[in-house]
Amino acid sequence: MKLKLTFFKFLLGCISLLIINTKFTSSLVAEEFLKVELNKEIKKGNFLIGLKQYLGGENDSFSKKRNINFKTDKGYLNLLASNGFKHKSKQINISWADMPMKNPKTIERIVFGPFASYESAKKQADRLKDKGLKTTVAYPKNWEVWIPFEDDLPEFELKNKIFRKIKNIQITPFLSSNNSVIKLEGPIYIYSEEEIKINGVNFGKNFYLIKDSYGTWTLVQKIGFDDYLAGVLPYEIGPSSPLEALKAQAVIARTWGIFNSHRFNMDKYHLCVSTQCQVYKPPKAKNKKVQEAIKATSNFILSYKKEPINAFYHGSSGGISARASESWQIQDFTYLNPIIDSSKSFNKNFKLPIDNESELNKFLDFDKGQFYGSNHSLFRWNKQISSGEIKEKLVKNKLIGINQDILDLNVIERGSSGRVTKLEIQINKINKSIVLVKDDIRRVLSFIPSNLFIINKLSDDLWLLKGGGFGHGVGLSQSGAIEMAELGFSYEQILNHYYRDAKLKKIEILSQ
After folding, report:
1. CA 52/CA 88 separation, integer angstroms
2. Please, which pLDDT band fits residue 33 given cuts at 50, 70 and 90?
3. Residue 502 and residue 363: Cα distance in Å, rounded?
4. How far apart are CA 143 and CA 122, in angstroms?
5. pLDDT above 50 (res 25)
6. 167 forms bridges with which residues in the sheet?
7. pLDDT, tens only, 219-268
8. Is 262 helix (H, G, I), strand (E, B) or coil?
9. Which pTM value belongs to this model?
10. Which residue ranges make up each domain of the chain?
11. 392 burial via Cβ count (<10 Å: 0-12, 13-18, 19+)
12. Which residues, in sequence order, are CB contacts of 477 under 8 Å at separation 6+?
């Protein structure tokens, strides 16, 4: 009897140990899920995409009455929160509430910007770093550079402002379930084996809710490279594009995403879904040609010296591509130089650089049918702009006051592709003019399709801009790639045309 009792105690001990180990293992798994490690996800072949930003705040246009609904038609949803809470159900409702903080804190910083692009913001951040200052590139609404506020900071040449705010509330997520409300802490991980609908739209299977640097939250999707591209290609180059053009787009979209995967580091995700990154939308249905292009180029990127390149691309080059430094405040890249966007035999008609107005005028008047991508609607364009339209944009961007008027426009600098890199706007204030530089030209004067233009003054308050192309002009021209594919060029030849000296390389994915 004693022997049996001892054995029974031993068995109970084993069962208890098993339960403890199971709980411990489950806890470890949950902890692993909640780790947001950006570099590791890239090595595993995943992007973390900021689908919806500023959740719970004033600029939240996604939450319905400050509520987000996750639902699956089949299977179950799983939720893991950083405070150890776990939940499993067919439907999850998360709502936002403003909770008072026990210890309000004052936020102070010096803000530079806005900048038209991450590239220009990063350049300014690097300049400040060189002076020994701690910098952060942020995107609250536009690209900005932040440095911590200190009383003994030096005076700065660029426009900056002091940001001060007393933070006394905290936007907090709550799970609403079965007449109960449970407070959650982030990151919050929500996943399922099935497709998840978020506010009625199918998005995918793996999501985070992550607190950002502005006091709000971001809905982040974890998605494999190829699944991500299925939501990029239809909106960047179009699903009806020729197969070889789609293949070229797949390679450069993958490459661009990897190269630029650091731009939202401070908010714990890689990329956004707007034109500030690459346009991404969850595909409503699989497109066979898009899927074929992605599969044929799976894990291929463009590299230079064995590293991913900054694979810029745009809608239409207008017949000539640009250096990176013509469009942004950044260094040039060896693999991105101005090229005449046509056959090699035709290139002899023009000499680079085309950096004066007379040569550019001849170029814009040349038979456009000789260039790749000339079917684009903005390959050549003419735009009349009035002083009133210019004034409206300058006032909106707080560059002039409402009582100031526009007198004249002057190009004071061009890049080697003929693009305007400095535009002077004269105003009726003594010894004062506004000078817009590179990407700020199109950021402020958003009605201009590209910086490839010349100016003709028609009257005291009316100008004609004669130009070509759509977008920044750096790297691959999507309309050019489409025409090259229609002419029989392979995607490798298309990539070689736009990215000289770059090589196709297959990357290793750790999860495969």
Report:
1. 23
2. low
3. 28
4. 9
5. no
6. 105
7. 999 999 999 999 999 999 999 999 999 999 999 999 999 999 999 999 99
8. coil
9. 0.88
10. 99-169, 314-474
11. exposed
12. 313, 314, 315, 316, 317, 321, 341, 372, 373, 469, 498
